[in-house]
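Students often ask why we bother encoding 3D structure as a string. The short answer is that it lets us treat folding as translation between two languages. Here is a chain of 159 residues written in the first language.
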Amino acid sequence: MDARIVNALIAAIINTLRTLLNVSPTIGKPGLLKEIKPKFDMITVIGFSGNVDGNLIYSFSPSTALKVVSKMMGLPYDNLDELAMSAIGELGNMIAGALAMNLEKAGCRIVISPPTVVTGNNLKLAVEGLAINLPASIFDGDDAEVILSAKGSMKCSQQ
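And here it is in the second language, the structure alphabet:
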């Protein structure tokens, strides 16, 4: 596993959430996953390709998702409607964009896909390659998680 990729992702998460939500998130120790079963019911998937191919998968509890949307919109929001889902997708897009910029500085180029936001209980995702889990705390406790999956060895070959 290329530490540059994981470090670039952690920096992207922290800096984006600080800037956009005015919070100081904490990221837990990365762990290897045997299967991808997101911890929470609100899930955003963003694919990426380039020097390394894979997916970023973000999951939030519904209450954390509502807090995120409220912070993004600057007013209380209490319904996970289409507008809220769009905001959650945009947050994922911003983090993925920051990841792409961070990796570019390290000599690794990726292109990200538009976000897909899904909700549901007990979802399991199938991806090729290696997957790591980054538990995250945005507002309180472990209220979010980020999963990074990559085909191959998750090493960024420089161009």
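Translate back mentally: The CA atoms of residues 72 and 95 lie 14 Å apart. Keep this in mind for the problem set.
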